[in-house]
# Entry
Amino acid sequence: MRIKNSVVLILVVILFFSCDKKRVFDEYKSVGSAWHKDSIVTFNLPKLDSTKQYNLFVNLRDNSNYPFNNLFLIISMEKPNGLIKVDTLEYQMANPDGSLLGDGFSDIKESKLFYKEKIKLEGIAKIHIKQAVRENGKIPGVSALDGITEVGFRIEKTE
# Structure
């Protein structure tokens, strides 16, 4: 009976991942139990079709130790020639009552945050992501952002 259950579980996992037809790139990197303000998470992108448009997402895994309602990120898109385009973004991470947004059944949540929609990625080689959270009334950034455990980047085909 145990083997039969294992086989069913494996088939469900394979079916789940094979249905993700939009995925072009999807990778996560661990930042430990806290994301340090000087830690830059870098993703090396595959060569993509420069004639097609893509949707870009930042994926985060966080837990109940995350102390803020929002999150500020600095995202850089780097071309092989060194040219860099930088965006500073803000995302809502929690409800007004402090409960985390995102998907998940336990205190660990996964958030899929829209970064860019229908963009051509001609010549983009790397993505750099850095947290830029500050406490109200304080100039220095939060040195270690608790609760963020993994940072991911995802590229999807547009339809």
